[in-house]
Amino acid sequence: MGTKQNEKILIVTDEPLRTLGYSLWKAAKDFENEVLLTEILPRKSNGEEPPAEVAELMKKFDVVFCPTSKSLTHTDARRAASALGVRIATLPGVTEEIMVRCMNADYHAIARRTHALCAMLEKTSVVRVTSPAGTDITMPIKGRTAHASSGLFHEKGQSGNLPTGEAYLAPLEGQSNGVVVVDGSMAMVGMVKTPIRIVVKDGYATEINGGVEADQFKKLLEPHGKDAYTVAEFGIGTNDKAMITGKIIEDEKVMGTIHIAFGDNKSMGGSVRVASHLDGLVKSPTVWFDENMIMTDGKFTIEL
């Protein structure tokens, strides 16, 4: 986070991640920074807002960590604090094991890889993804800004997950078409035993089929209405230390995978605000940026 000694740090946690929140509090205290630890009730979904008082508090610090059981990444509270220059790391559902494994990666190498992919994405009009499990989807992205979650959040207003390592953006609303087969893991569901087959038409998930995991995914979407079915994100993992474990905070960062999320895309420059953002992991993808194949069966075909 590039924290300087005179900077104030806020840690927002909840009961399931209290131990990790306290560890971050202790680390900041050991560096002799002014640090405040506050605990909120667990949110019901990824993207549900924290209490208004905590949202205001986030604006008053230089650096904010959010180790919480549900993600605060795609919230207005996070966006408003970032807009004021606060540097924010969100750590939704992270475990000690994930922290030890993935935070010991070379984040300078991850940053180079991630920024290179972002530069390519911003010159691309359409992304296409296929996979052995049956994914075949096209996502128009022309004009969209790509975001580098590189793990180095040193400049005012920068934010992202920790651990991290992904290049991502919001596909153009209403224009993605095809089939996504989630065969890795699904946010808030975990490891997928029976692949989740999602038919996408004109930017929305219109059919969801599979086994128990597909039923769980549908139940998570239903309370939030049509916006929750929006194709919200296309992302590529760039962390070479990350492994597929069933925790999406790590899984979506695994190098050699891509993820497609449904729901809120406002954090990425889109127009959809809904209290739901669910990422689905696709294994062994082949990926085209326009006519340029940049990955085949989960292996990069370009120098990064």
Quick description:
The chain is of the alpha+beta class and 304 residues long.
How are the SSEs placed, and which strands pair?
Layout: E1 8-14, H1 18-30, E2 34-40, H2 52-58, E3 63-66, H3 76-83, E4 87-90, H4 96-102, H5 107-121, E5 126-130, E6 136-140, E7 147-149, E8 159-161, E9 166-169, E10 177-182, E11 185-186, E12 190-191, E13 196-201, E14 204-209, H6 212-221, E15 231-237, H7 248-251, E16 257-263, E17 277-283, E18 286-289, E19 292-296, E20 299-300
Parallel strand pairs: 1-2, 1-3, 3-4, 4-8
Antiparallel strand pairs: 5-6, 5-18, 6-10, 7-9, 9-15, 10-13, 11-12, 13-14, 15-16, 16-17, 18-19, 19-20
Helix pairs in contact: 2-3
Q: How would you portray this structure in words?
A:
The chain folds into 2 domains: 86 residues, 3-Layer(aba) Sandwich (Rossmann fold); 194 residues, no CATH class. It is globular and about 50 Å long. The longest helix is centred in the middle third of the chain and has 15 residues. Helices cover 21% and strands 32% of the residues. The chain has 7 helices and 20 strands. It is an alpha+beta fold and 304 residues long. The strands form 4 sheets. It has an 8-stranded antiparallel beta sheet with strand order 14-13-10-6-5-18-19-20. The two termini are 24 Å apart. α2 packs parallel to α3.
